[in-house]
Fold this sequence. Notes:
12 strands, about 40% helix, alpha/beta, single chain, 5-stranded parallel β-sheet, Rossmann fold
Amino acid sequence: MNRRDFIALLGGTVVAWPLAVRAQQAGKIPRVGFMGNSTAALEANLVGPFRDGLRELGYQEGRNIVIEYRWAEGNYERFSALVAELLAVPVDVIVTAGTPATLAVKKATSTVPLVMIAVGDPVGTGVVPSLARPGGNVTGLSSIAPDLEGKRLELLREVIPKLSHVALFLNPLNPFHTASMRQAFAAAQALGIKLQPLEVRTSGELDGAFAAIVREKPDALLILADRVFLHDRKRIMDFATEHRLPSVNAYRELVEAGGLMSYGPSYEDMHRRAADFVDKILKGTKPGDLPVEQPTKFTLILNLKAARALGIDVPPMLLARADEVIE
């Protein structure tokens, strides 16, 4: 390692993305850091499309690209240490999913290129100044869309016409949940629904949220998009089934784990698209010159097996609108 690269590693003051270009020119195998929120097993369905995307672009893991995986195991407090590990490797690009992980990398380095996936509001949370011209070292894919929480509440109302009380799982450590909460409360007021916010920062706080649900007896559960809930999806959905609690969320994985329905962008597709950003950066494009992509397609997934277990008859019109039905 020469003196310039050593200074870049320690101080983070030297522009770093040319390092990826020099690595390509010198025949060095590029290294990509992938920082996951959960575990390798629980995020396999997301990492798979990312790796598939790289293969489609000519990369073969272990031959002409190395991916350094780090896993937070559902604990956001681990992010800073994981970022430090990746910077010490060092890696040429870092890939993250979700707002908290992305902000952790942005705080740690302004030089190593960062490809974000599914960040809810990159501008509002300070990740980038503009979607069209992100500038700096960050680009990638946003999951931002108007009134998603309102649409999810409307879906609950369709399956429960007398819906009046909904428990809301949120993570106060996720900056995007401020905007999501505004959406949810505005929609709830318009629909005449009482929202019961329940804060869950880590797996250890789920028992308290479950106890509040048992005590207050809401009609349904709305789960904001957060990787803590993705990490603990089986535990959450087992509880919802046991207490006959219909749920709606952003992730298909929660529906596959027994939830009633999900509505949102395709996170698998966003992970696949992230490979294209990595490829462009490794070939010399500055991340700040790559506009942030926004989702254009939203998917409704219904779990009829869960509906039967909950004693719910899904309206035919809703069933006809579903993009995917789990029997």
